[in-house]
Amino acid sequence: MKKIVAIIALMTFVVGCSNSGKQLTIEDLLDEMVSMESLCEFPSVEYRQMQISSHDRRSDNPQTKEDWFANNDGFGIIRTDTIDGRIEKVIFEENHPGVITRIWITTHSPRSTVRFYFDGHLAPDWIIPAYDLHRFGLAALGEGLLNTHTSYEVGVKGGSTLFLPIPYGRSCKITLEEPKGWSGVPRYFQANFRRYSDDVQIESFSVEVAKRASDKIAETSKILTSPICVKGRTTMMDGVLASGESLSLDLPKGERVVRSIVVRCKDVENWGEATRRLIVRMSFDGVQTVCVPLSDFVGAGMGTPEVKSRWLNSDGKESVGANWLMPYRNSATLAIENIADNNATVEVEVVTTRYNWNERSLYFHSSWRSEYGLAVTNNHKECYDWRFATLKGRGVYRGDMLTLFNYAKAWYGEGDEKIYVDGEEFPSHFGTGTEDYYNSSWAPVVPFHTPFGGAPRADLASSKGYNTWVRTRALDAIPFKESLVFDLEMISWVPGTVDYSTAVYWYGDLNSVAEGITDVVEAKREMPEPPADPSKFVISNSVEFEALEVVAKSEALQVDRQGMLGFPDGVWSGGKQVTCFGGSTGDWIRIDLPVEEDGVYNVKLHATKAADYGKVQFLLGGKKAGVLDTYFAAVGNSGEINLGSTKSENNKISLEVRIIGKNPKSLGYMFGLDCAVLEKVE
Fold this sequence. Notes:
6% helix; Jelly Rolls; mainly beta
C-alpha cells in the first residue's frame, strides 16, 4: 500500500547576505559559505571562478595534441622573481579584485617558505614558514576549513586543502622560496579564485583582518562540521515497489523550497544494487531537472557506501539523503522508480519551507552519465579527454561524483580536470590529477570524508576494482552564463580499462540543460565482482620496509612509500616499497629491523632496480655488509641479497643504506627497499 502523509513543523532558514553596494569583507564571505540560500542563487555581484595550478606547462594548446596531455605536473610555475636577494617562484598572480576560495597543496618535503603579497605591496603581507597549510598561522582554523589529506605526515610528505576565503582588493601574488641548494623537488598546488571587475570594493586579507575575524572563522568551521538541522513542513510517502513501479510525491504548492530529502530502503537483498536501481526523478514547475540513480544522487556511487558531507549523506546500510536547497515557484514532484527485477520497500521524507523567489533564484539540476570499457593509458601521447559533463544555459556548478570500476592493476587517475566556461578556448580550470581535484593527494587513497566530499569507496590499496569520489563546492562554485564543459584526461599508471559513471549537481534556469546524458536504464547493468587484492602477495617471514619508521637520514634524502602494483605482479612483497630520492653520493638512511628476541640473525634483503637508481653500500650494526648496483634498464626486483649475519641489540638490528655512486648508464641516485627476511641463527 502506498500512502502520503503531511506533517507541519516549525520553519527556520538562514538568510544570505548581498555584497552589492558595499565593501566585501572576509566576514561576508564566511557568511556566504554557510548560507543555505546562497546555494540556489546566481551571484549578486558577478565574478569568474578560475583556477591556477602546477599543471605541466607544455599543455598550452588544445589544438596541438603533442603535449596537451603532458603529465609532469609538479613543476608548473608562472615565473621566478628575485626579491631582496631571495629567489621566489611565483605560483599565483592576479591583478584584479578577487578572493582565493580554495588552496590545495602537497609535496614530498614541506621545507620552504610561502609568501602572500596583496595590492602591489613590496613586502609580504602573510608568510607561511613551510610548504604546509597546517603552518598557515591561524589557530581558529578547524577541520571545516582545513582538511588534512590521508597521506599527510608532519614534516615528511602529503598535503591539505584550505577553504578559508582570502580576499584582496587590487591584486595578489603568492611565491615559493626553496631551501638553498634545493632543486628538482615537485611542488603540486591548486588555487581556486574569484575574479571580480575592477570597480568591486574588497577588503584585503591581512594580519589585522585575520585577528578581527578569528571568532567568525572558528564559528564557520564548527558549522561546516555540524549536521544541518532542518525544520519545516514534512511530506512523506512509502510503499513496496515491484519491478517497473514508481512512487510519486506531490510537494506543497506555492513559492517553496525543498530543504531535505531522506530515502530509506528496507528489506532489500543487496543494498548496493537496490539503491543503484532506484531512480530519482524530480520536476519543478512542470519541468524535470533531476534523473539520477539514488546511489549517485547522494554521492555514494557503486555499492552505496557511507557518505558524510555537508549536503550529501548515506549510512551505508538503510538510509540516504541530500540537503541541497531546491526552490520552486508553484509546484514540485519527486518520484522513485524501481528498475530492478526485485521488489524494493521505500520510505521517503521531504522537508519544505516557504521561499521568496527572486530574479537570481535557480532550480536544482542533477544528471547522470555512464560509459563502460573506457581505455586508460600511461602514454600521454596516446591519451584523450573524456567528457565528464556538458551544461547549457545559465547556472552555477555545485559539485559532482565519480564512481568507477577499475580493471587495471594500478592507479587510473593521473588525468587532470579541464573545465571550460562560456565558450573558453583554454580551460579556466586545469588540474593536476583526479585525486587532487577531489581534495586528496598521493594515490592510491583510502576512504575519507570531509564537509566538501571525499572518497566514499576505495576497496584496494592498488586502486583496482571499485572507487568513488565526491566533491561539493561552496565559495568555489562555478557560475556560467551560457555553458560549462568538463573534461577529464584518461591517464593511468598502466594501460587498462575503466567503467565510469558521473553525477553532477548544479543550479540553472528551467531551460538550462545537461547534454550527452545516459539513459538511467544503464544503471540496471550488473556490477562486476570485487577483484582479489594483488597486494596480498608477501614474501614469507618478511619485514616490510614500508611499515617501518626511518630512524635517521641525511638532510637531502627524501623518503616515500611507493605502490609497486603497476609493475610486474608478484615481485614486490605487499605491493609496496620504500623509495629514497633527492640524494647523491654520501647520502644515507637508517632503519631499525625489529626482532622478537635478541640473538644472531642472518639478514636477507629484497630491493628494487631501475634506470635512475644508484649504487649503495649496506651496513649492519655499523659494519659494512655488501654493495649493490641497483641500475637496471627497466624496473625490477633485485632478488634475494644475503648481507650475512649480525647480532641484534635491544630487539632490533640497525640497517644503514648509503649511496656510494652510480652506474655510468644510470640516470640518477635513487634506491628502493622492498622487504627484509631475518633468520635467527641457532
